[in-house]
Specification:
9-stranded mixed beta sheet, 4-stranded antiparallel beta sheet, alpha+beta, about 300 residues
Length: about 300
C-alpha cells in the first residue's frame, strides 16, 4: 500500500532544489532514494509531477507517494559480530575488512545486515526499508571500525537528526602517501559523482554536496604519513576522495590512488576509530572506540622499521 505524504514549503527552504528539500523534511531517507522517487514520478508540487531540477516555492504543497517496501528475501545469517556496546536502542559493531554493510547487487548475503537480522531478530529500525534495517550510516567494504545500528525508529530518527546537523563525532585513522608540509589542516571541497566515471566519487564544484574533512598528522614515515581524519560531513568515500584530491591518497586505495601498492593490502588503509553521539533515550553523550585491526598495526610496525 502506497503511503501519501504532504509538506508545505516554508521560508527556510524556499528556492531549494526538490531533492535537497525532501532530504530536510524526510530525515532518514537517503538522497539516492529520494531521487529515485522523483525519477519514478512519485513527487508532486501542487499535484504536478516535478523533475530533479525543480526548486520549491514558498507556500506550495509538496506531495510524495512512497511505495510500500518490496519484501525481499534477506536471510538472517549466523555471522560472528564484534560488539562494542549494545542496549535496547543501539548496537555498535567493530566492522571487519571485506564486510559489506547492507545487501546490494552482487552482495545479497554475508553482509552486516544479514548478521544483524540473526543477532537482533526483528529489533531493527524500519526507516531505511527492508534492504537497510537499522542502518543510519555506512562505512566502505574495506574500511574497518566502529559503526552504530539502530534497533528502533526513535533511535534512528535521533541519530539521523544528529548526522544532519553534523553533531556526531567521527574520527578515522589512515595511512596515506607522501609527507605533509604542515601538522594538520582542513579540506573543504564538495563531493559528487565523477563526471568521467559514474562508479567513482570526485570533488565536483558543479553538482557536488558540501564536504569538510579535518586532518592532523599522527606520525611521519617519509614516503607515507599516519593521520587522523575528523569528519564534519559524511559523503560517500569522503576521506578517500579528499585525501586523493590534495595529493595524499590512502595507501592500498586502488580506486583513488596508485593501481599498484608496495605492500600486500586488501583495499584502503582506513579505520573508523571513534564514534560519539548523544544517546537517543538518555540524552547522555557517549563515545566509543574500535582498536586498530591487526593488519593496520602490522603495517605501522613495518613502517617504523
Amino acid at each position: 500500500m502506497t503511503e501519501h505524504l504532504e509538506f508545505i514549503v516554508d521560508e527556510n527552504h524556499t528556492g531549494e532544489r526538490i531533492d535537497k528539500y525532501l532530504s530536510a523534511v524526510m530525515p532518514g531517507q537517503s538522497r539516492s532514494y529520494i531521487q529515485k522517487l522523483i525519477k519514478d514520478a512519485s513527487v508532486f508540487a501542487d499535484l504536478k509531477p516535478v523533475k530533479s531540477s525543480y526548486k520549491v516555492i514558498l507556500g506550495e504543497h509538496i506531495q510524495v507517494a512512497v511505495p510500500e517496501p518490496v519484501s525481499l528475501d534477506i536471510r538472517p545469517e549466523n555471522i560472528p559480530l564484534d560488539i562494542i556496546y549494545e542496549d535496547q536502542d543501539v548496537i555498535l559493531i567493530n566492522k571487519p575488512k571485506d564486510m559489506v554493510v547492507h545487501p546490494s547487487a552482487g552482495h545479497e548475503s554475508h553482509t552486516l545486515v544479514n548478521a544483524l537480522l540473526y543477532h537482533c531478530k526483528d529489533q531493527l529500525s524500519t526507516i531505511n526499508g527492508v534492504l537497510r534495517p537499522g542502518i543510519v550510516h555506512r562505512i566502505d567494504k574495506d574500511t574497518t571500525g566502529v559503526i552504530v545500528i539502530c534497533k528502533n525508529d526513535m533511535a534512528h530518527q535521533s541519530l539521523a537528526d544528529q548526522l544532519k546537523v553534523h553533531s556526531i563525532t567521527r574520527k578515522y585513522e589512515a595511512i596515506v602517501y607522501g609527507n605533509f608540509s604542515q601538522d594538520g589542516g582542513t579540506v573543504e571541497a564538495p563531493i559528487g559523482r565523477s563526471p568521467h566515471d559514474r562508479k567513482k566519487m570526485a570533488v565536483n564544484y558543479k553538482n557536488g554536496r558540501s564536504a569538510v574533512t579535518h586532518y592532523r598528522v599522527l606520525e611521519r614515515f617519509g614516503k607515507y604519513t599516519y593521520i587522523e581524519c575528523t569528519l564534519e560531513t559524511g559523503r560517500t568515500h569522503q576521506i578517500r576522495v579528499h585525501m586523493s584530491n590534495i595529493g595524499h591518497p590512502l595507501l592500498g586505495d586502488e580506486v583513488y590512488g596508485p593501481s599498484k601498492c608496495p605492500f600486500s593490502l586488501q583495499g584502503q588503509t582506513l579505520h573508523a576509530r571513534i564514534l560519539g553521539f548523544v544517546h537517543p533515550r538518555t540524552g547522555e553523550y557517549m563515545e566509543f572506540e574500535a582498536p586498530l585491526p591487526e593488519y593496520f598495526n602490522k603495517l605501522l610496525k613495518k613502517l617504523r622499521g
